[in-house]
Amino acid sequence: MNESGVYPVDRKVLVKPETFEEKTKGGIVIPDSARERDNMAHIKATIVACGVNAFEYIEKAKQRPQIGQKAAIAKFSGYLITGADGKSYRLINDEDVVAMLDGDWDIRYKKEGS
Question: What pTM was estimated for this model as a whole?
Answer without folding.
Answer: 0.75
